[in-house]
Request: fold
Amino acid sequence: MKERGLFDRLVSSFRQRLSSLPDKRKGKNSRYGMEDAALSAFGVFFTQTPSFLAYQRKMADSKGKSNAQSLFGVHQIPSDNHIRDLLDGVAPENVFPMFEEILQGLEEQGHLSRFRCLGDRLLVALDGTEYFSSTQIHCCECSTRTLRSGETHYFHSVVTPVIVCPGKTQVIPLVPEFIRPQDGHDKQDCENAAAKRWLSQHGERLRGLRGTVLGDDLYCHQPFCQQLLDQEVGFILVCREDSHTTLYDHLAGMALPTVTTQRWTGKVQETSTYRYLNGVPLRDGADALLVNWCELTVSRPDGQVTYHNAFATSHRVSDDTVAEIVRAGRARWKKGVKG
Reply:
């Protein structure tokens, strides 16, 4: 954010929210405020160094002031161990309102318009990521898997929605949804169930933003697609042949509309071949949801295929739109942002 006023406003709001974080200390050893500990932890993502404290002390010694003070207004930086001790017991939900506040700030300043594409749509990529794993350390909220050796593997994972845009390396994170045991459920929680919970909570907001959800083949199944449509949210989801046999049986033997373009990479000529078809069944059965399908194959003169993928989408595909839809679907990956 180049506008210093917006940045300062958000940091001030962030500090205020962090100052009210639950503090396990009972009036003793309170030299450091909870907001200083939390902002110091947050600052790690800016410096990307193993020790935020050591980095800031070095900067203060060499320049007279650290950016922990100038950017975030941190009064005193706790040690790394002290930061972990203070924050480990704080529920992440305490800072979730900041995601919406940041989004509103960006919207008010016109920054979201720079991320719009595909007919004024915002692309929201959903993906699960594992952020802790161990065969020894575990807690009551761990997910588990059994290794081939018979040993139990404990892990934590989360669904992380982010606003993306083709041609942009920056993303805008939205409220995450943790994958963890749910009260009243016998089955272990999973990425797909967590994504459905997230959509139930944030679908209305996503509809207001004119959102289109991007995701891998895990999400490309009728219950989730139907939930998106019920929320009036679009989708472009990876659609693999081995998990969508009915859809691909429907495509087999048909003369599919095809668009071909060529591009000189600076070293070699690449040919992009797009194929598509509207109104194909996502699964078997009379109640099958009809989706639109498109595919991209990128090849070189020697026959080498450098990229191949296919997508199921709620957006109608045509000769004029197929390349833009595929480019939007590929925005989930950095290598695809140039489309």
The first strand starts at residue 116 and ends at 117. The first helix runs from residue 4 to 19. The radius of gyration is 24 Å. DSSP finds ten helices and 14 strands in the chain.
